[in-house]
Amino acid sequence: MRLVAVSAGLSTPSSTRLLTDRLTDTVRDELAGQGHETEVDVIELRALAVAVANNLVTGFPPPQLAAAIEAVTSADGLVTVTPVFSASYSGLFKSFFDLIDPGALAGKPVLIGATGGTARHSLVLEHALRPLFAYLRTVVIPTAVYAASEDWGSASDAHTEGLPARINRAGREMASLLAARATDPRPGDDLAVSGKQLSDLRLD
Amino acid sequence: MQFGIFSVGDVTPDPTTARTPTEHERIKAMVAIALKAEEVGLDVFATGEHHNPPFVPSSPTTMLGYIAARTDRLVLSTATTLITTSDPVKIAEDFAMLQHLADGRVDLMMGRGNTGPVYPWFGQDIRQGINLAIENYSLLHRMWREEVVDWEGKFRTPLQGFTSTPRPLDGVAPFVWHGSIRSPEIAELAGYYGDGFFHNNIFWPADHTKRMVELYRTRYAHYGHGTPEQAIVGLGGQVFMRKNSQDAVREFRPYFDVAPVYGHGPSLEEFTDQTPLTVGSPQQVIEKTLSFREYAGDYQRQLFLMDHAGLPLKTVLEQLDLLGEEVVPVLREEFAKGRPADVPEAPTHRSLLAAASEASEASGDGVAA
Q1: Chain B closest CA to A64's CA: distance in Å?
Q2: With contacts defined as CB-CB under 8 Å, which chain B residues touch A65?
């Protein structure tokens, strides 16, 4: 099984990457427990920032970006994590997904995560990321994981789970969805499929 | 193999002088460029079609008719004719008329157009782009081949007992290319009719062009028009040359950096690496162009975009001298090497007429007579 993570953190090291790694590790461990071997590939959007901008301008991806898009569209499942900027996902995060053909992610399991300086932004996951991935017709698992700075140094209390518990819950949900899906053969090449449409039309 | 130029017809400021040509200057420049193309020994001039600023060529057959009167050899074509928003009846009439005036030196390239508002301005819906192209082309195809057409479709008022006039010259329809960058349906359409397929690869990496051309070749063979290798393929290219490649790079960079379409994006070096754009010596242009054959197979028509990025007319004419004197003669020689004998040349009025006469002699009925 191939799990691809998209991390939109801008600093090195970044807490966005830290959360990404915690999430992918958890999914991998859960799947291992169920007898599935998982290959994890993490795409750092920072390294693709110029390529993303160039694609927006020219209409085609430079080679390193084409490889990242191919990895994302061919993955069995995605983990996508963005820092919260101005009450939403970062512009780079959105621009990357703007470059993926609509429909190319349809049906794909996605675990969404976000990081921020304060827990007050946590609903960005529900009002920005979840609608984006619903529009892309992915299957977003119920638990989305938000990590505020304070979460990295605090435990659960009587009212809320701590970050590790949320990560574990999301990881279990994602792993059970991935495991339940026998690896369906991928649909055929786009070109061949849409070519058929025309031969079905009566011409002349 | 045919070599020529195609023009978008954009009015773009020259970034080195900040001067924008007037529409009148640009239109006259396009004509001067076409005349120069014939003078330097090129085979084809193709004009774009647009219905919004900053583009001037809204009326391609008017321009091509004028050029026809001032040239003797040049094949006049389009890149592209909007089959979606133009009435196919008017296309049939306009290009048949042009074909007569130009004594057959005419073909055309169908395209859908990608400017959203143009569709509603002409009463159409961009979401129906592919369906419009399919239906309108099937009508156009019939009008040039059937004297009297009864027709009903979804997008246009029905025709009963309609004869498009003038009839095509010698009863032979102009050859049609279908241009598309991304739509497999258009490659399918070209394959279905056994028409030509032009991939305007100038802003695209080779692997994308390869996939589209392969699809067209496969479908051309599927519909029984010949082998995949015999399908009729055209490609674009865009170049800027000086004898010394460093001079070319130095002179073109300010144009590249702010050019429409790709400007303000990748560097000149990245873009030339990833797309057909070549900025350098004539020898570099020759090498890059010859490499197209590696992924597109032996093909029939090579069109270069030369009047791009706001280059002044004087520079474009110098470029055409280099293209005609130093590049195309070598390309003709090199592309001929190893080209299988059963790969056809691009169809012309003469070759289509000969094929039609042969077919009518064989069947004993005089369709083309």
Answers
A1: 12
A2: none
- CA angle (A187 as vertex; A182, A190 as ends), nearest 5: 160
Residue positions counted in chain A: 204
The 10s digit of each residue's pLDDT in B207-257 is 999 999 999 999 999 999 999 999 999 999 999 999 999 999 999 999 999
Contact indicator for B215, B199 with CB cutoff of 8 Å:
no
Query: Would you give the end-to-end CA distance of chain B in angstroms?
Result: 28
Q: Which domain holds residue B67?
A: 2-363
CATH of the domain at B264: 3.20.20.30
Asked if A198 and B185 come within 8 Å (Cβ–Cβ), the reply is yes
Whether residue B192 and residue A62 make contact (CB cut-off 8 A), yes or no, is no
Could you tell me the domains of chain A? 2-200 (3.40.50.360)
ipTM of the complex: 0.78
In a domain, B79, yes or no: yes
Is B368 contained in some domain? no
Distance between CA atoms of residues A130 and A136, nearest Å: 10
SS3 A20: helix
Structure tokens at A142: 């119920």
B22 falls within a domain: yes
